[in-house]
TrEMBL record:
One of its GO terms (cellular component) is membrane. Keywords: Lipoprotein, Membrane, Palmitate, Signal. It comes from Undibacterium baiyunense. The lineage of its organism: Bacteria, Pseudomonadati, Pseudomonadota, Betaproteobacteria, Burkholderiales. Residues 1-28 form the signal peptide. Belongs to the nlpA lipoprotein family. It is a lipid-anchor. InterPro entries: Lipoprotein_NlpA. Pfam families: Lipoprotein_9 (PF03180). This is Lipoprotein. CDD domains: PBP2_lipoprotein_Tp32. It is found in: Membrane. A lipid is attached at residue 22 (S-diacylglycerol cysteine).
Length: 268
């Protein structure tokens, strides 16, 4: 056997091993495409992205500004999962989407819901007949009404009914009027109403500080923790297990506490 043949054989062997190693690395690298609202969800996902890359997971973040399309696209398998839903909202979503595939994995944070006004500095200044804007989706409208009831502005048939509607109001002594609008639009119409109940993610995007700018706010014992959600067919994947662990890590807890300073609260 010639020296030239032996050298050529070694070169081909090394090349083959290199290709095999590259193939194994490619197979080990998993990709997750997760839907999220811009703040704080996408920001928190961006924070864990480098950590996941070291664990072999490529995290792709698709940002939405509404609450409907992310859930729809997960059900259609155009996305692997989402991070923006609360359990009450997911329950309501499932009622209207018969083939819902979404499965909650872990709680990550709570965004305390709050009431804002650009016209009044104190809740006691709110006049009779005031117009109050609340979200129009079932989960958040009930949440808004419960929070208003806790402020003594109205009474509900059942304070524990998270799906409460205006029909469940049994006492409205101030003759309050309600505008039900898409949650994302509420910061933009704040000057057109007397009071608006705004989700914290949309408040932060609008440069409102929930702790300083609101007239009242939920406490940390809210049942509305934001969830990491997968599909039935991928909920046990190694990639999702790594993402769930990352979102419930001490590093993420510290990031939430330092970045949002109480406007967003860790739920783990």
């Amino acid at each position: 056997m010639s020296v030239l043949y032996q050298q050529s054989r070694r070169v081909f062997t090394l090349a083959g091993l290199s290709l095999l190693l590259c193939a194994n690395v490619a197979q080990a690298q998993e990709t997750l495409t997760i839907a999220a609202n811009p703040v704080p969800h996408a920001e928190i996902l961006e924070f864990v992205k480098p950590q996941l890359a070291k664990q072999g997971v490529t995290l792709k973040i698709k940002v939405f500004t509404d609450y409907i399309q992310p859930g729809v696209q997960v059900n259609e398998k155009r996305l692997d999962g989402n991070y923006y839903l609360t359990q009450p909202y997911l329950n309501e979503f499932k009622k209207s989407h018969k083939n819902d595939l979404q499965v909650p994995l872990v709680k990550v944070h709570v965004e305390p819901f709050a009431g804002y006004s650009s016209k009044y500095k104190k809740l006691s200044d709110l006049p009779n007949g005031a117009t109050i804007a609340i979200p129009n989706d079932p989960a958040n409208s009930g949440r808004a009404l419960i929070l208003l009831a806790k402020q003594g502005l109205l009474k509900l048939k059942d304070m524990n009914n998270i799906s409460a509607t205006k029909k469940d109001i049994v006492e409205n002594s101030k003759s309050l009027k309600f505008k039900e609008l898409e949650a994302a639009t509420l910061p933009r119409i704040l000057g057109q109403v007397d009071l608006a109940l705004i989700n914290t993610n949309y408040a932060i995007e609008a440069k409102l500080n929930p702790l300083k700018d609101s007239l009242f706010i939920e406490d940390a014992n809210s049942p509305y923790a934001n969830l990491l959600v997968a599909r039935e067919d991928n909920k046990n994947s190694p990639a999702f297990k790594k993402l769930a662990a990352a979102l419930n890590s001490p590093e993420v807890k510290k990031f939430i506490q330092e970045r949002y300073k109480g406007a967003v609260v860790p739920a783990f």
